What does this fold into?
Amino acid sequence: MKQEKIKPDPTQPNPARLRPDPAFKAVTREFTKELGIETVETEFPQSVRADLILNVPEGLVLKETMFRFFRRFNIIEFKGQNNQLTEEGFVINEVRTNLLYLYNEEARFENMLNLLVSSRFPQRFFDYMEAHQCKFEQDKAQPWLWRCQVGLQEVVVIVCRDLPLEQPYYEWLLFAPSDSQKWRDFVKMLAREGNTRLLDMAREMRPKEYEFMLIELKELLEEYTPDERKDYLKAWFSAVTCELIDYAKEAPEEWSQTLAKFTAEQRLAGITPEQRLAGITPEERQQLLELLAKDDKKAK
It folds into this structure.
């Protein structure tokens, strides 16, 4: 029986440590919640606070999901494409796992998993660990998963780049490196399926890379039926509208040049008379009245 636990005192965060990717945390929280997996809230010091700690309730079956390897408690550290997995990241998650053991009455090393999720393949980290007698072995049935027993802890590394292009893995495929063929194939697959929810997320997370992908996505439209093409374009226009508004503010001259390429009818389509008058100067209003008066004379 463990002794009564005392909450650790909060400390200042380590300024050298990068902030956890908020998108990964938000996506994973929502994704796992839908499966019935619970989030564990802790009061660990900020410097070692986990990206996520997930609890699998007793009796929950995850066999048909990508999380079939989960244990009862899963302490997660995520490393994005620009934040390589290192021995420091491993040690921090090792400390979190030990803290959970100390401060959670139900936590046992047998039901905990030290889980490291890496956007890229962490070759340097694997080499370092092997040199220190901790060799990670690839799971033959799940080649995107690597295991190693480090002391009392089981450690698992998930490589997002190596996840299969299949439905159960979609949410974490979002975090494959955006300069990889896997990410590009994934975005094209989403476009082909008309999955606007995840396409929007991919665009928000990697706007520049997504913009480059538009050329390839345009080629996909040729494969669509007229109805599928219409639905995709409707979703695409909806997705880019908010970005265009921001771009117009940042580069008004370029925006004006872009608008000039449209016909007057295209620019005014869907705009009410009241909206057309909004923002015009008194001088422009007077010019407009004079033009309308001339048109009225011609009509008579």
